[in-house]
Design brief:
single chain, 538 residues, mainly beta, 24 strands, globular, signal
Amino acid sequence: MPLESTTHSLIPRPGRSSAGAFFVPCLLLAALFAAAPPPAGASYPEPGPPAASATSLPAQPDIFPLQLPGLRLDAPSPVAPGSRTEFRAEYPKEPGSGVPAFVLQRGEYGGSGYKLLVEMGDLQLKQTRNTLQEVRGRGGRFSFLTGSFGNRATLETFATSDAHGEGADDTLVGATGELSLLDESASFKTILLSGRKSLDREGRWPAAGARRGDVAGFVAQLKPLKGLVAAEAEYDCSSYDASTSDLTSPMRDTAYRLKLSGGWGPSRYTALYERTGPRYLLMSAGPPRDREGGSFGVETVLALHAFDVKLSRYNDNVENNPLAPRVNRYEGVFDYRFRGVKMLPLALQYRKTVIDSGREPLGTLPKDVAEDAVSGQLNYLAGSWDLGVRGGMSQRIDRLRQQRELATTSLGFLPRFSAGSFTLLPDLSLKRITDFNAAQRTDQYALNLGVSGKLLEKRVDYEIKGGYKRECTGVPGTGKETFGAKLKAVYPLARFFNWSRQPSLAVKGEYNEVNNLTEDRRENDFSLLISLDGGSFL
């Protein structure tokens, strides 16, 4: 089967420097380092596997260490200095396109006391949560590493550009430097990023104006007692200009976070304090603005039981704006998992949330709302069957008026059957929402069925999904009905063609229908696609 595709979308940050002007001097700097005599007594780790190109995005940690694809820093290098090149290309999983979805050309050179890495193509860039969470774009990256005796210094520069197929010019350039001491017992990192996005679809800036932004981050990590105590601190400054064509000054603000973590035996703890200013803006996804607070969590795993407790308190209006109230949010979550019976795993959760306000300006009503939620899931594992039941209840109370605002009850049945390449996934869910303010009750019923597997001696991959959902309010002639179905089948043609990337024949169909009983309107659409992927000779 073709390799899974790697999506690449650039999320730019506006700036003044162009990608080429920033990246070319870095390549010249690399040549100077390669010609210089190496320091004595330095050693380097063996290059590791290339970076993954998966499209999924896992949960982001608070502070990301500097990761150089192909460079492992946890073991000394037993090989002599030398160079290595690599080319990677991946094609879409969906047939019908012979254009690679991911292309990367890499070159490495390792000497006695230093290592160089140059990459051109589709890059995955990731720094910290407050600077650059994760973006993918096409460009170049240069990395230089040196160090010895448990200490190392790393310099990385990169430049990416993408037009998104609309002619708009997007650029992102950046540089990072990291110093690690005493086998990562202490590390310090500086991050500088700059980018811009043209406001004109044809990319004519600066005449047409552009969004421009810069961010600088400073990160420190201390691990005096590895495993027991670890401290992290980050301070960031941002500058954001929504349009360079006007006379408005850029918005500038800061953000910082402090974190303590560690554990002993089967227990772990985490304490976090963070603050983000109201004018802290990034072009890409960033932390919530105008927010201040902290959280504390403890997790422990016993022989048959696992407990996880999290407490947090946050508020907005961090600069005490007299024209707006300050809204406080308190939340506590208790998770429990029982593993005493192997065939019956059990998970329970209780969540308590309180939202209130203070320092209300004249004419603003105070707010004091509390919400309680209980949920749980029980699975019965019996051979090829996995029978799951999930349910939950929640209610929201206005504590100022001492009355309920909203109540929700849900129940779901989640069976699963797997036998070889055949999988059956039916599910049934029921949900009732009662709005006491509007004196209205809404019931939701949903039934879904999915079948997937292989046919014709495991040559054809097929997948069939269908579902029906009904919403009713108890009033005759109101509600909504939704029906949907999908079909997909892929037949490889490898037996007919001896190519490196095998061709395939695919059939895809989809049907959707929405019947709005309240508005007496029905909408439906149907699509059928038959595609022949010709593969590749290379």
